Amino acid sequence: MSAQFTLPSLFVSHGSPMLALEPGKTGAILSAIGAALPKPKAILMVSPHWETVSARVGNLQKQRVIHDFGGFPQPLYELDYPAAGSPPLAEHVARILRDGGVDAGTDGSWGLDHGAWVPLRYLYPHADVPVVQLSLQPHQPPAYHYQIGRLLAPLAREGILLIGSGSFTHNLRELQRSDPTGPVAPHTLEFLHWFLDHLQSGDLESLLAYRSLAPHAVRTHPTDEHLLSLFFAMGAADDWKRFVHLDSGSTYHSLRMDAFAFGSQADLLAKLPAAA
């Protein structure tokens, strides 16, 4: 990979842990993304399932999979993702954040939760790219996570793929669990279209204030940790106003599975069938 090449940043919706066993449209899209991008030297992943008060960067030499869910079929608990970690990258990330005024440190207590390893099984199925996970601070606003992305954006020029994993909409109380492929909830489409309109107009101020401005914002995200990683991905791009939206549809009626690529190289994904 050329030193001048800047990888796009990604936001991916990981949905239910059952995505690992039932790929559907989302699994196919994630696989296509991994195939379309130049292979990164390493991955820095933010997931809403590792929440900490201050930023923590996983520094395991070898990753361990965390099955952080309950009540699912036994085969799900037998899945692994035996990727390497990267303590040097973890320390590099923590140092960048500290130099930017962010309280950050390395941490060996975690691993890869399902927000990380489930989509990675499709993006890079051979687990042959080192992965470092960065924790999320759910008490902080979108602007904070956007700034975390801005601080770490130069890593993309070093061949590091920066990924925010979450869910474009995430109200578990409204899921129709018996009907994973049922009709899409109309209010989630209204929320999506508002978001797309403001991305296309480059209106960062409104996007960062989405909870008070977007239609159905609190309904689609009673708590917004699953969308905060999207703002990280926007900040991590060299030019977030250049983006590709990959329409992965919905599962369980109201859980939207959209993915986004941000940056000057996002067009690498523009020809994928789901690109909108």
Automatic annotation (TrEMBL):
<keyword id="KW-0862">Zinc</keyword>
<feature type="domain" description="Extradiol ring-cleavage dioxygenase class III enzyme subunit B">
    <location>
        <begin position="11"/>
        <end position="240"/>
    </location>
</feature>
<keyword id="KW-0223">Dioxygenase</keyword>
<protein>
    <submittedName>
        <fullName>Class III extradiol ring-cleavage dioxygenase</fullName>
    </submittedName>
</protein>
<dbReference type="InterPro" id="IPR004183">
    <property type="entry name" value="Xdiol_dOase_suB"/>
</dbReference>
<dbReference type="InterPro" id="IPR014436">
    <property type="entry name" value="Extradiol_dOase_DODA"/>
</dbReference>
<comment type="similarity">
    <text>Belongs to the DODA-type extradiol aromatic ring-opening dioxygenase family.</text>
</comment>
<keyword id="KW-0479">Metal-binding</keyword>
<dbReference type="GO" id="GO:0051213">
    <property type="term" value="F:dioxygenase activity"/>
</dbReference>
<keyword id="KW-0560">Oxidoreductase</keyword>
<dbReference type="Pfam" id="PF02900">
    <property type="entry name" value="LigB"/>
</dbReference>
